[in-house]
Fold:
Amino acid sequence: MKFQALALAFLAAAAIGGIAWVFLYPLLSGERKAENRRASIAKPEPTARRVDKTQRSRREQVESSLKELEARRQKESKVALSTRLTQAGLEWSDQKFWIVSAVLAGVFFVLAIMAGGGLLGAAGLAIGAGFGLPRWVLSFLKKRREKAFLKALPDAVDVIVRGIKAGLPLFESLKVVAADSPEPLKTEFLSIIETQAIGMPLGEACARLYERMPLPEANFFGIVIAIQQKSGGNLSEALGNLSKVLRDRKKMADKIQAMSMEAKASAGIIGALPPCVMSFVYITTPDYMSLLWTHPTGQLMMVGCAIWMTIGILVMKKMINFDF
Structure:
């Protein structure tokens, strides 16, 4: 009996000691205060306290630069005729372009009348020659110039990277590219140098490259230079990464070109088949085909066929052209 009382007393004392250890010891030893202090230090402060408004982080500067460039692109989304002529590499004025278009329209109208095509057919041919043909040539020259620019741009960026690593300033590296690069890269970089020489900041001068060469690659180059001029950083590393991106995009474009060649060949055959058949029939039986441009009903049929053929060609072009 006595032993049981001692055991109960021991268990009661142990229970009371355990409760005191759990609840009273942290308060008496200061451990709870230390834990609260560590929690207050580890707790993240509000962003408004941690970030000084007068000294924005690099990420915020990059985001603001991108927003400014995107806003400027949206304002200048409508391309003027003078800008399109510059993008095509032509030193023409707007007046000269309209004169050439009017001359082409007049020449094709006279040729159609002399060939006996009728007034309606001649008018349609003149409209197509005066409005469609010059713009098609302008678009062709623009795309050809852009392809030549893209072909030489990665090598030019590598030259800039090597110049910066060798200790040359960015402006001097751009001069080296402008002196040794082929056209049209030479002309575009000379424009950057001339624009910067009259007082425009180098970052903004490089960003304006996209206006004369509306390509994503040119936009990437302008953004990299503009951000580096505003926020600093390792320019050689950034341009080296840009060069790798440009080459990867070129590889992707070549791969897409190879994969879509079968569809493009099929579209070319389908689009060329009606004119070829019409020409062969006209060679064999000209009286049978001449009704299409001598009779009013035939002329309307020709206009309808031209419209439907154009729609079909545009649809096929949309299906086989891939953007990335």
Confidence is low (pLDDT under 50) at residues 42-55. The first helix runs from residue 2 to 23. DSSP finds 17 helices and no strands in the chain.
